[in-house]
Design brief:
- The structure is a homodimer.
- Chain A is an alpha+beta fold.
- The longest helix of chain A is centred in the N-terminal third of the chain and has 19 residues.
- The N and C termini of chain A lie far apart (about 55 Å).
- Chains A, B: This is Thiamine-monophosphate kinase.
Chain lengths: ~325, ~325
C-alpha cells in the first residue's frame, strides 16, 4: 500500500495540469466527477498498451508516457472532440522510481500539450500494461462518425503517412542520422490532430484516426458507410525523409503502416471548398467516395503491389 | 485481427443489454458518445483486476465476469450515482472460447442486474488483466464524497461484513457445505448497494464502498473529512454463517476483510431519523463521528485485538 501511495504521488501533479472547470472532482474519492456543459456530448475511448505487443520491451518511459496519452487522445481528434480529462490504469511489476519519474514526465508533457487533466486511476501490481481512457466533449450531434461517407465525398488525410512505420526499423539504431531521427520523432512523439479534428466537427462526413494503416482504417469508414473509394496513390503525402530512406518501399509504408495518428476524413466537395483556407490547406485530397463497395488504387507505379494489406479488394 | 474480431462478438450483445437513452453511440467507432441529462453530473471510476493478484489463477470465468463489473459498479453506489454504461479493456493470453463464453455470460448477467450497458472497449493480447471503467450520473452537486463527515454523524453500514473475506479460505474446497456455500456466494457474486446508495445521495454526509475492509475504508473517510470515529464493535452486523464457521475470528474478518462491497456511510442523526423506513431499516448504526482524529473501538470482547489492520490508531 505504501509503495502504491508513493506511485500515486508521481501522478498527483497531473491532476492539476490543465485548467478545466468541467472536472468537478479529480483523483482521490471513489469516483471522479465531470460536469458536461449543456448542449455538448461526452465522447470517450479506452486504449490499452501492453509491453512487447504495442511498444518494445525496455522502451524509454518518457516516450511511452507521451505515446500512451497521444494514442488515446487521437481518438478524440477523430471524433472532432475537445479533450477534457483522462483516467490511467497502470499495472507495474515493481515500483521503479527512475521508470516512474520518466513515465510521469512524458505523460505530463503530453497532458499539458493536449490540454487534458488526470481525473483518476488505478495502480496494480502486474505485467507492464497501460490503459488510458480519454474524455472529451463535442457540440451535441456534431461528432464525426465512421458511417457518414457519401458518394462524391473527397477522401482527405491530415499529414504525411508512413513515417512512424518506417521508424520501427530504427528503434535499435545507436546513432541514427538526421533523416532517421526525423522519422523516429514521428514514432516517439505522435501529434494527435486535435485542433484540425475539432474544426471539422459537423463538417466532415466521416473520420477515423490512422492507427492501423491508411488502407485498413479507410476500409473501416467504407464498411460503416456502405460505400467504396478510389484512391490516387500519387497524391498520398509522404515526407522527404521517408522517400529518401525507403525508396520504393515508401509508398507501401504510407498505405499500410500504422502509428502515425493522422486523420483520414471524407468531406463533401462543396463543404471542402467553403472551409477557411488555414483549415483547408492542412488537408490533402487523396481520392473520392464511390457507390460500389471496395477500394481501388490508381496512379500506382507500374508493377506496384501493396505487401501488407490483407483485405485489399476483398469487398469485390 | 480475425481472432480479436471474434472476441468482440462475445461482447457485442452486452452493448444492448440495458435500455439507455443516454448512450448515443456504443461500441464500434473511434469513441462512444454519452449525453448526460441537464442538471446531472457524470460520475466515473476505473478498476483493474490482475490474475493472481485480485483473483485466483484459473478462477471461474463466469464468476470473474460478474465480480469485475460488480467491483467497479460498487464505486458508483458509493457516490450515490445511477449506472449508465461501462468500457472493458481486456488483455488475454489467448482467445479461449470456453473462457470467453463464461466470462461474457457472467459480465452480461451483471450488466443486466445493474442496468449498465457496454459502451466500448479494447481487446489486446497479454497477461490476463481486466480494466473496467463505469459511468453513472447523479443530480448535480449531490454526489456522496468521502470528505463530508462531521462531528455527531452516525457511522452506518449497509449489510453484514466479513463474509467474502472468510470465503477466501474455502475457494479450493471441493465440496463446501451449506454454511460455506453461503459465504462463497458473497465472494463470487457481490451485490453493489446501488439502490440504497442512490436513495442516500444528497442525504448521507460521506460514503465509501468497503473493498479493503471496514476499518481501512472508514479511515479514508476520517482522513478526507479531518475527523475521528468511535465504533461499537458489538453492533457490527455479521452473518450467522460467519459466526458459526469462524468463531472468535469472525469479528476480525468483519473489521478488516475486504471484498464484501457493502457501503460505509456517515449521516447526521436528524437526517437518519427522517429517512423513509424502508431505507433506514437497511442501515446499521455502528458508531459516531468525533472531532478528534483517530478510530476508537468499544464493545470488543475482553482481550480482543485486531490482527489485520496496520493503520490502527496511527492518527493518535
Amino acid at each position: 500500500m505504501g509503495e502504491f501511495e508513493l506511485i500515486r504521488q508521481y501522478f498527483q501533479p497531473l491532476a492539476s495540469n490543465a485548467s478545466n472547470d468541467q472536472l468537478v472532482l479529480g483523483p482521490g474519492d471513489d469516483c471522479a466527477i465531470q460536469r458536461v456543459p449543456p448542449g455538448r456530448d461526452l465522447v470517450f475511448s479506452v486504449d490499452t498498451l501492453v509491453e512487447g505487443v504495442h511498444f518494445p520491451p525496455h522502451y524509454a518511459p518518457s516516450h511511452l508516457g507521451w505515446r500512451a496519452l497521444a494514442v488515446a487522445v487521437s481518438d478524440l481528434a477523430a471524433m472532432g472532440a475537445e479533450p477534457v480529462c483522462f483516467t490511467l490504469a497502470l499495472s507495474l511489476p515493481e515500483a521503479d522510481s527512475d521508470w516512474l519519474a520518466g513515465f510521469a514526465e512524458g505523460l505530463s508533457r503530453a497532458s499539458q500539450a493536449f490540454g487534458i487533466t488526470l481525473a483518476g486511476g488505478d495502480t496494480t501490481r502486474g505485467p507492464l500494461t497501460i490503459t488510458i481512457q480519454v474524455h472529451g466533449t463535442v457540440k451535441a450531434g456534431q461528432a464525426l462518425l465512421r458511417s457518414g461517407a457519401r458518394e462524391g465525398d473527397r477522401v482527405c488525410v491530415t499529414g504525411p503517412m508512413g513515417n512512424a512505420g518506417a521508424a520501427l526499423d530504427y528503434l535499435e539504431d545507436p546513432e541514427p542520422g538526421a533523416l532517421k531521427r526525423a522519422l523516429l520523432a514521428s514514432y516517439h512523439g505522435p501529434q494527435p490532430q486535435l485542433k484540425l479534428g475539432a474544426s471539422l466537427a459537423g463538417k466532415a462526413s466521416a473520420a477515423i484516426d490512422i492507427s492501423d494503416g491508411l488502407l485498413a482504417d479507410l476500409q473501416h469508414i467504407l464498411e460503416a458507410s456502405g460505400v467504396g473509394a478510389e484512391l490516387d496513390v500519387a497524391s498520398i503525402p509522404m515526407s522527404d525523409e521517408l522517400r529518401q530512406l525507403q525508396g520504393v518501399r515508401a509508398l507501401d509504408l504510407a498505405l499500410t503502416a500504422g502509428d502515425d495518428y493522422q486523420l483520414c476524413l471524407t468531406i463533401a466537395p462543396e463543404t471542402l471548398a467553403a472551409l477557411p483556407a488555414p483549415v483547408r490547406e492542412q488537408l490533402t485530397v487523396i481520392g473520392r467516395i464511390v457507390p460500389e463497395p471496395g477500394l481501388t488504387l490508381t496512379g500506382a507505379p507500374a508493377g506496384y503491389q501493396t505487401q501488407g494489406y490483407d483485405h485489399f479488394g476483398r469487398s469485390d
